[in-house]
Amino acid sequence: MMDKATLKLLSDLSLTMFRKNFFGIYHGAISAKVDHNSFIVNTADAIFDEMCEKYFCQLSMHKKDYRWNIASIESSIFASIYNHIHEAKYIAFGVPIYTTAYTFDHEVIEFSDYFGKTTFGEVPVIDPGKFSTWYDRNSLEITKYLKETNSNVMVIKGIGTYVYERDINELVKKVAILENSCRLLSLRSSFQ
After folding, report:
1. What is the pLDDT of residues 157-184, one digit of tens each?
2. Cys bridge to 154: 34, 162, 182, 185, which one at CB 3.0-4.6 A?
3. Is the pTM higher than 0.90?
4. Which residues have CB under 8 Å from 123's CB, separation 6+?
5. DSSP characters for 22-52?
6. Domain coverage including residue 136
7. The CATH number of the domain where 13 resides is what?
């Protein structure tokens, strides 16, 4: 049985992140590590502005069973991150509009605002290569990048943003700062 407090926390944050355009109606994923062997993740048919228990499932990190068939497409990536990065307690994937749009014309996000600069400095934009093979190799590439760079944020050109944290409030804070900072960069360019 899934922990009610964790489900409520993920549900509430899903709505907040949906309202801030980090998640789309059916696009995104949020997860919490339950213990060394399992995690809770949204289902593939989750509607992020009305999350409830039926839109979550608990998965084993080491053994795929029938629940994996209803889980988010991001579940394999999340399991890999949880297995290889022990600091990860919460993970989110989304396609924030301004951040993702910024990736089309830039190789690095160089922040100009106070919060972006002091939180991130700069964030590289990772080129995913061929989109047609992305879901065959993304689990390995994302985990490898996050582990080797000691970064808990990965922005991928034209795909979206992966963020993990030990504290859920820090995760939401980083997501908000990243998107707001990219929005400011976008607005600044319209004044030039």
Report:
1. 999 999 999 999 999 999 999 999 999 9
2. 162
3. yes
4. 108, 109, 111, 151, 153, 155, 178
5. SS-SS--EEEEE-SSSEEEEEBTT--TTS--
6. 4-190
7. 3.40.225.10
